[in-house]
């Protein structure tokens, strides 16, 4: 049984409660894009979450093009991605909060000195850094340990592509079998699982009536164990390290 040396944290709705704020900003921009193309589609933050949770904005625009047959030329795409990043960061800087219980757990893990701790996100690097800085979590992720599928890779992509996890492992000099990822979405869980990493599926931020549905979704995507609150993480990690999960 390989020793667990590395913990890979998704950012949005895993470390910080950013998903709802971000999707509000995304919805406003996507509605403008649809209107400009005479497409009779209107999203709210909530309907966008249901359709695209776990994808970054570039991934959402790609899905929009495929689903609704619209065309966005590359120059416009890059311009929209930058505009979304600015709009989301403004919202996050105003209102972002950490996920319940995560700060205590990050401190405890950091104090053990046993683990390399890294952030692996689909979101743009600037947004991820702004998020963890806003809530004071950046002190736990010093050095080159924050990775973004949108910004860090030679070719930008989004989860569920495993590329960002494979890239993070390579840069950290770690193997999949010595790592554990914590993810809240289907696409994130698939991304880590496809990279060969054991996943803890986190459902804490979901509404009560959605939690059990998400438990099934994350398990089906490959999560080995489900976590409802960060206070459960010490015992979950212990079981993983003992080879029970």
UniProtKB/TrEMBL annotation:
One of its GO terms (molecular function) is phosphatase activity. NCBIfam families: HAD-SF-IA-v3. This is 6-phosphogluconate phosphatase-like protein. CDD domains: HAD_BPGM-like. Pfam families: HAD_2. It comes from the Eukaryota. SUPFAM superfamilies: HAD-like. Gene3D superfamilies: HAD superfamily/HAD-like, Putative phosphatase, domain 2. It comes from Emericellopsis cladophorae.
């Amino acid at each position: 049984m390989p020793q667990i040396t590395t913990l890979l944290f998704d950012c949005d709705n895993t470390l910080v409660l950013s998903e709802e704020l971000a999707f509000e900003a995304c919805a406003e921009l996507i509605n403008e894009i649809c209107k400009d193309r005479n497409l009779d589609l209107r999203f709210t933050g909530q309907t966008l979450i249901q359709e695209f949770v776990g994808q970054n904005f570039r991934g959402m625009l790609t899905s929009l093009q495929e689903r609704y047959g619209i065309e966005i030329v590359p120059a416009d795409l890059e311009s929209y991605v930058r505009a979304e990043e600015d709009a989301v960061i403004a919202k996050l800087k105003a209102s972002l909060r950490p996920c319940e219980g995560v700060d205590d757990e990050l401190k405890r893990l950091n104090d053990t000195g046993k683990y390399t701790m890294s952030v692996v996100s689909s979101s743009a690097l600037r947004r991820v850094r702004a998020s963890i800085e806003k809530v004071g979590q950046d002190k736990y992720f010093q050095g080159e340990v924050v990775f973004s599928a949108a910004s860090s890779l030679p070719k930008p992509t989004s989860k569920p592509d495993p590329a960002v996890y494979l890239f993070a492992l390579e840069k950290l000099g770690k193997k999949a079998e010595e790592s554990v990822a914590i993810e809240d979405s289907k696409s994130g869980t698939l991304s880590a699982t496809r990279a060969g990493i054991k996943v803890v599926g986190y459902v804490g931020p979901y509404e009560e009536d959605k939690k059990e549905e998400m438990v099934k979704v994350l398990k089906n995507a490959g999560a080995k164990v489900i976590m409802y609150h960060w206070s459960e993480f010490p015992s979950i990690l212990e079981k993983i390290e003992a080879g029970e999960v």
